[in-house]
Amino acid sequence: MSVVKVSIDNFEEIRNSEKPVLLDFYADWCGPCRMVSPIVDEIAKENPQYLVGKVNVDDEPELSQKFGVSSIPMLVVMKNGKVVNQSAGARPKAQILAMLEG
Question: Of residues 14, 23, 30, 74, which has the active-site annotation?
Fold first, then answer.
């Protein structure tokens, strides 16, 4: 499965997914975000049991505010429409997968 571009327009659909959701809040100008991005892409390709989405904080300030994003990259895991885990800063693949499984 590929990564979904998340916007305010499709957020409700993403949030209501039956699959656990991984959201990557990022910006194109952010160095650590560029390090995390290929890892998030890999997780999406290798794990069809998860819905993986990316939120560009510059394009989606309303979503960024809703999640209280103050530092990027920020990764958020949602299950059944609720945030169950989140972390700010670059993370290795194993830690991101642990967030999803935890």
Answer: 30
Q: Cα–Cα–Cα angle for 55, 59, 61, nearest 5°? A: 85
**Residue of 6, 33, 77, 100 marked active site:** 33
Report the pLDDT value the prediction gives residue 24, as an integer from 0 to 100: 98
Provide the domain limits for residue 76.
4-101
Q: Residue 79 belongs to a domain with what CATH number?
A: 3.40.30.10
Residue 2 annotated to the active site: no
Q: Does the global pTM surpass 0.90?
A: yes
How far, in Å, are 52, 60, 77, 92 from residue 43 at the CA level? 8, 23, 13, 11
